[in-house]
Every structure is written in C-alpha cells, then in structure tokens.
Amino acid sequence: MSISMYHASVPRIVSILTNVAHLLDKAQTHVETKKWNEAALTQFRLYPDMFPLTRQVQIACDTAKGVVARLAGVEIPVYEDNEVSIADLKARIAKTIAFVSGFTAAQLDGTEDKDILTKRGDVETHYKGMQFLLNHAMPNMHFHATTVYAILRHNGIEIGKRDYLGKV
Known about the structure:
The chain is mainly alpha-helical. 63% of the residues lie in helices and 7% in strands. The chain has a single domain, classed as Four Helix Bundle (Hemerythrin (Met), subunit A) (Up-down Bundle), CATH 1.20.120.
C-alpha cells in the first residue's frame, strides 16, 4: 500500500497548527485572568540559547507552508515575522492553515520521489519528497509545537496532553 502524501501532510499539519492555536487560546485566557504582561510570555524562552514562544510559532508555520509549497512546486509565501501578541500569533496560524488547506491531493500525491532542495545560508540539503515530509518537516513541526506547549506549561498555563493532541 502506498502512502498518500496529501493525507500524510495537509490534515496532519492543520491538526498540529489548530492544536497550537488552542494552546494559545488557553494562554490568552490565563494572561487576561491573571493580568499578566503578555510580552513576558510571548518572549519567554526555556533556556537562553533557545528561541522564545513567538519564534517557535513562526517556525512551526514556516515549516508547514514550506513543506506543502515545495512538494506542490509553488512559491512559498513570505511572512514578515512581526508578531508581538498572542492574537498576532493566532492570526499567523490561521493564515498558514488557510494556505495549507488550499492544496489538493492531486497537487501532493505522487511527490514521494520529488527532488527537494533546502538552503540554510551556504548549506544545501537534498531530500526526496517523502523523506523531506516524514523525516524533516513533520518532526520539525512537532518539535516547535512541543516547545510552545513546554513554554506555556512552564509558565503555569493549565494545559495538558489532551490540549496538545487535540481531538484525534
């Protein structure tokens, strides 16, 4: 049985980002109830050399839009990375979900062996489509979503595993 690249990507990505938005809803409620400085939460990092909450959400969104765009062979939309509030982060997630949801199975299925090239500075990495999706993009999204969860939980936001996993 072959894998559907569409079903392995779009629904999973939408689920992950929807769950991150749910975590941010809970964070927003907590911030408002406790009258916290929202920036203290959005700029919180688990360790000095780690990215803050805001950047974790941005990277999760960038990974999401990048993987489906690369597989489909379309231009990756560029976002400005100017989010400062939880509402801004949720808007970025919504924009990313809308972009990802616009792809069809016809655009993604059959890309298992597609050559994918990524560049980070001077470093080029070559993948095949399935390898890129399953061994790079999806783990990367989970890493950043998990880090969002960890930052929020560390700061006392009342969330749990069910919030992270969502309705499966």
